[in-house]
Design goal:
Layout (H helix, E strand, L loop, with lengths): L3 E7 L1 H4 L17 H9 L3 E7 L18 H11 L5 E5 L13 H18 L9 E6 L17 H19 L2 E4 L16 H16 L11
Parallel strand pairs: 1-2, 1-3, 3-4, 4-5
Helix pairs in contact: 2-6, 3-4, 4-5
């Protein structure tokens, strides 16, 4: 059977950074939610992990570097993995850092820019636009430990992301899922997912993907 492909484009919570640890310490492939997703979907799907710690939607990071800009990397990333049947975008947490000073509504606008770029690029089958799913990250906890100054004001804004992302998804006609409906951030640092949360998110997204009305396969893998 021909294989479908899904690109999981996100930040440290897609990369699998372990809560309370550094960016080089991550869960193994099978624990991270894209790996869980692969296991749930089975051999008929190819799940592509593209998570980067500190990635934003559309902003160069003045401290961590311009390469953290998700918009800069999405286009070559999508082209390198073409053909894509589905692109899942789970970003927004890093946009809430004080250095960017953005409300939740503008973070959603950044997500919208990524969707417009994907539609222009059209890396789907036969040069079509792939299915797109926006995933709102779980809200940041009130206690973010030593990250308090960096994420000042972010917990409150993060609780607004799901609504703003859903509004954006509805306006652009793409799929939406609220990760906060099935998992929470870990108390070790307040904004990363633990192993249990990764399992819950991967399993839930598999159900969301299977619920999409996929046409019969005709192309070769």
């Amino acid at each position: 059977m021909p294989m479908r492909s899904v690109l999981c484009f996100g930040d440290s919570n897609t990369h699998g950074q372990i809560p309370g640890r550094g960016p080089l310490e991550r869960f193994d492939r099978h624990t991270r939610w894209p790996g869980v997703l692969q296991s749930e979907l089975g051999a008929s799907w190819y799940v592509i992990e593209e998570g980067l710690s500190g990635r934003t939607t559309v902003h160069d990071d003045p401290i961590e570097g311009a390469h953290k800009n998700g918009r800069t990397y999405l286009r070559p990333c999508a082209q390198s993995h073409t053909v894509l049947d589905l692109v899942i975008i789970m970003l927004g947490t890093n946009d809430l850092k004080v250095r960017f000073n953005k409300p939740a509504s503008e973070v959603a606008m950044g997500i919208g820019c990524l969707i417009y770029d994907l539609r222009e690029l059209a890396p789907g089958p036969g040069g079509s636009v792939p299915e797109i799913m926006i995933v709102a990250p779980p809200p940041i906890l009130d206690d973010v430990k030593e990250w308090k100054s960096i994420f000042a004001g972010a917990p409150e804004k993060s609780r607004q992301l799901a609504l703003e992302f859903e509004i954006m998804a509805d306006s652009l006609g793409v799929h939406f899922f609220n990760a906060g409906s099935v998992c929470s951030c870990d108390a070790a640092d307040g904004f990363h997912l633990n192993a249990e949360a990764h399992r819950a998110l991967g399993a839930a997204l598999a159900q969301e993907i299977e619920a999409i009305g996929w046409p019969a396969q005709e192309r070769k893998s």
